[in-house]
Each structure stands twice: as C-alpha cells, then as structure tokens.
Amino acid sequence: MMTLLLIGGCQRSSTPEPIQSAPERVVRLYNWADYFDEKILEEFSARTGIRYELETYDTSDECFARIKSDPAACDVFVLEDTVISAMRELRLVRRIHREKLPGIRHLDPGFLDLEFDPGNLYSVPYTWGTTLLAYRKDKVDPKPTSWTALFDEKYSGQVMMMDDSQESFAITLTTLGFPMNSSVPRELESARSKLIEQASLVTGYSDFSTILDALIDGTCWVAPMYSGDAADAAEAHPQIGYVIPEEGATMWIDNFAIPRDAPNVDEAHLFINFMLDPEISGRNAGSIWYASPNLSARAHTSEELLQDEQIYPAPEVLAKCGFLKKLDQPRLQAQNEAWAEVRRSPSLEARAAIRSTSPQ
Questions:
Q1: What residues have CB less than 8 Å from 275, skipping those under 6 apart?
Q2: Do 245 and 327 sit in the same domain of this protein?
Q3: Which of its termini does the chain have fewer beta carbons within 10 Å around, N or C?
C-alpha cells in the first residue's frame, strides 16, 4: 500500500509547468510629425519582429519637457544639436554603445564629433539642414534674396518668426553683418533693438506648423522655416518658395538619442542602426525631403533631392552657413532679456487681442 501511495505521489508532482511565452519586443519612438517614412518603420518591424510605437511632438521645448519629466517616456527620440547639448548636461540621455552601431561608419565625418556632443557619446546624426527664408511667390515680388525681407515695413502684418530666441537672434545678427554666435555687447544690443523694432511688423512668434498653415492660407508672406519643411510645403503648395539668403543661414543636425531611463535599450540600438543602413537612409531622406549625413546613402538617394541646392547647398553657399553654438552666460542673459521684451511688444499684444475678438 505504501509503495502505491509513493508512486501516486510521484505522478502528481510531475505535472508540467505552463509554457511561458516570450515577451513582445517593442521600440517606442518620439519625433516630429511626418519625420519618418512610416513604410520604413513597418519594414523595420517586418525584418526584426520588433513592434514600433510612434508618438509625435510639435516643438523642441515640448520634447525636452517630456523627457525631463519622464526619462523613461520613450526609447529613441530625435532632437536638434543645441537641445541635445542641454540634455546631455542635465544627464537626461544615456551613452550610446558604439559597438552596437556599426552603421556609424557610413556617416560624413563633418557631422561627427562636434561641439554639442564631442565623440558622439550621446547622439547619432539623423538629418541636417538649414533654417532658410520661406515666402509667398504671389505676394513677394521680386523674389527675396536677403533676411532683410523679415524686417521690411512693406510686409507689415504678414511676417512671422519662430518662437525660438536663439534662431531669431542668429538671423538678426546675420542680417546686421555680425557673426550669428556673437557675444559682443554692442552687437547684441544692435540685434535687440532691431528685433524690438521688427515686432511691430510681426503677426506671431510660432512653431513651424503654425507658420506653415499661415503661409498656405496667405496670412503670412515671409518667415524663417526649416529647409525640409519648406521644400515639402512648396511641393504641395506651388505658391510657396524658399531660399537660403545671401548672408547665409544657421545649420542644424537632428539626432537620434536614447533617454536615460529608456526601458528597451537593445531595441533602441537596433532601430538606430537600421536607420543608418545606406539604402534605408537614402529612401527615408527622399520621402521626408531632408538632407542625410549618411555619405553611403547618396547612391540610394533621388537625383532630384541631391540637386535641390536649398537642401544640399553648393559649397560656396554652405561656407556662409554655420552651426549655433552653446550660449555663454552674457549672451544667454542678454538674449533672454531681449526676447522677453520682444514678446511683450505692445503692437504684438494688440494684434493678438484683435485676433481673439474677431469672428471666426
């Protein structure tokens, strides 16, 4: 009897455990709207089995604030060089594992190891471009060639500016013939005075999507705009033109970065390396119409895009352009004080009040 009981006990204890299925792999992406070719994102998932989730933002400040409040909010985000620099100093981004990104070898060395991230320890270049001048062809004649169009009284009430103090100061300094990164007090004071004077012409200081809508509906005739956005707008709306002004323009690099507490770090590296593939990078650039820093991608990029001199400027034009640099304390203080004064302009406040009471 005892033997039978023991056998029965052994049989009961040998019941197999339930099979645990492997957790689903996912990468969460945070980017500007329409800044990925979603067919390429779908191809990433098909090749790797990693599902992607895409969330978009409207301004760099929105993205910065989101990552600052929750460094686990996503796995990969895209932001420009100046903001990446600030996030690196605040320890909001984690170091890149270069050994997991062999595709970095395809990138143009001219876009690597720059001041905002020496050694590219925290960021990987995605696209690059300029902040150029967009305009309405049917309203602005002759075609503008200079930033002075933004300060021309004949366009009063039809000028818009980016809600970005550093870009606006750089444009103004360049218009005045000064270096875009100047910290010389008299030059900053000249820029401050010119921006305050310009405020009477400006209908709004806004994000790029608001400026784009205003250009489309004709309530804005001239405005700064990122090169790829301007090209995309011009393709859809032939009345919109764009030009790198003769004085030159600011350059920028949008970068992939991984937030400090990203939960899916391996998937993040796999995604970034996938986007560094020359064929993928070339196709993506042609879809979003932005310049790629990937030299090997040129062979996979449409000739039409490569020949667009506002996207891939000629060397002599590019020589007049430059990257914004980290602000020293005197420049930062002067710029912030002046920007606050510009935004408090009585004429700007009056126009805002008129718009808010006007029938829709």
A1: 40, 103, 126, 256, 281, 284
A2: yes
A3: C
